[in-house]
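Support reply, case 0932

Customer input (verbatim):
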Amino acid sequence: MGKYNILKHELVPAHELLSKEEEEELLQNLGIKREQLPKIRKSDPVIKILEEKYGPIEPGRIIKIIRNNSRTSGIYIVYRMVVGE
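Our regenerated output:
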């Protein structure tokens, strides 16, 4: 049986790995430190799928999550910092 890509499920929002430049720009614009972002574990199934696309994702990297499931706010973006297992 083949491996299922959970990012293709309609209820899972789009996830992207930010480039290091995008990370720095985001942190500067928000005026926060990386550690102040909400966390996502490296063992999360979404991270495993993203690693197939981007290669190994080290703790400390930032993931952009694009949600499009709200009738009132439409599309909104959240960010998560990858942490160890």
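We compared this against your earlier run and they match. Two observations from our side: The chain has one domain: 13-83. The longest strand covers residues 74-83. Please reopen the case if you see a mismatch on your end.
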